[in-house]
Amino acid sequence: MTTAALIVAAGRGTRAGSGLPKQWRALKGKRVIDWTLQAFRDSGISPIVLVLSPEDRGAWDSFAADSDLVLTAGGAERSISVQNGLIALRDLNRAQAGSAHNLPISKVLIHDAARPCISQALIASIIEALDHGAAAAPAVAVTDALWTGAGGQVTGTQDRSGLFAAQTPQGFQLDAILAAHASHPGGAADDVEVARAAGLEVAIIAGEPDNIKITRPEDFARAARILETENKMDISLDVRLGNGYDVHRFGPGDSVILCGVEIPHDRSLQGHSDADVGMHAVTDAIYGALAQGDIGQHFPPSDPQWKGAASEIFLRHAADLARDMGFQISNVDCTLVCEHPKIGPHAPQMRSVMAEILGIDPTRVSIKATTSERLGFTGRSEGIASLATAALVKP
């Protein structure tokens, strides 16, 4: 099933102050509508029907090249604009009928362009709820006391039990809301009212206080503060992943060094250093996450000072470089590929040694092994290979 979004952007928004309609006004370096569209695009929603006023010719031109948008004209009131958007989705389904590359649109999220602070989590919640019903919409329970008033004076109180402040996006099965709008006389406050008039049950999904609708001039400043906080959360965490791979052949000897642990064996691994294939792979994974090359660039095998060197020198250098660049090592995962020796009995000690060098808890170090089912050079016991992944985080 495919979910589409229908964003209503044809209103004039006179309560938001003079000038352009609110959806076209600036908000933290973009237009309000751009923030709204970005939220749905970041959630992977496509297509997006954008309902525009015929008067906003500049807007039509600015979106003409956007392949994920379907543009359609709004009407004299919101319900007509929504119905026009729903018809555009119906027509799109018909045009794509029988195509092996396009699933039919079955769900639609109807959203106000003037709610630019909608979160991806809330969008996902509405979509998930539509797996279990025909309609779902977000709302925030009313918790403040409610008064009635006249002439600037309080005239009474209103029971707030069971009252909710409605939000968008309001989600529906496409066929159901199309039929509901087709039979509705118009003048509804929102699409939930249209749906309920058609007998549809609407599930209430927990809304978000930050999912505000820009209505008055002061709402722009509030929306800017919310978006600033959200953006800081998005960009404050720099997460890097790196992969490493290494292989060494067997030669004469009586032990191998793997992930810093010497293991008795009838042969040794050959290499310019101590040939610790596991530690080398983890080292390269860290360098990779930092985009800082590989071991050979930092410790050239042509340099005699590294002949027979302990591989922990390389790993400590990579870990120190990560810290110098402002990163924390979140975790590492190393897989050793060999027929012999057996890795399992030594894995706990390997984790402890690697964790000490990396400066992280052993619970963040994974050491595991597999065979290659006697295939290839590792299957013929000609050597050992290792693959590693490292995750780095900059707070």
UniProtKB/TrEMBL annotation:
Pathway: Isoprenoid biosynthesis; isopentenyl diphosphate biosynthesis via DXP pathway; isopentenyl diphosphate from 1-deoxy-D-xylulose 5-phosphate: step 4/6; Isoprenoid biosynthesis; isopentenyl diphosphate biosynthesis via DXP pathway; isopentenyl diphosphate from 1-deoxy-D-xylulose 5-phosphate: step 2/6. GO terms for molecular function: nucleotidyltransferase activity. A divalent metal cation binds at residues 246, 248, 280. The record marks 160, 213 as: Positions MEP for the nucleophilic attack. Its EC number is 2.7.7.60, 4.6.1.12. Residues 240-395 are annotated as: 2-C-methyl-D-erythritol 2,4-cyclodiphosphate synthase. The keyword Metal-binding applies. The record marks 15, 22, 272, 371 as: Transition state stabilizer. 4-CDP-2-C-methyl-D-erythritol 2-phosphate binds at residues 246-248, 272-273, 294-296, 370-373, 377, 380. It comes from the Bacteria. It catalyses: 2-C-methyl-D-erythritol 4-phosphate + CTP + H(+) = 4-CDP-2-C-methyl-D-erythritol + diphosphate; 4-CDP-2-C-methyl-D-erythritol 2-phosphate = 2-C-methyl-D-erythritol 2,4-cyclic diphosphate + CMP. Bifunctional enzyme that catalyzes the formation of 4-diphosphocytidyl-2-C-methyl-D-erythritol from CTP and 2-C-methyl-D-erythritol 4-phosphate (MEP) (IspD), and catalyzes the conversion of 4-diphosphocytidyl-2-C-methyl-D-erythritol 2-phosphate (CDP-ME2P) to 2-C-methyl-D-erythritol 2,4-cyclodiphosphate (ME-CPP) with a corresponding release of cytidine 5-monophosphate (CMP) (IspF). Belongs to the IspD/TarI cytidylyltransferase family. IspD subfamily. This is Bifunctional enzyme IspD/IspF. The gene is ispDF.
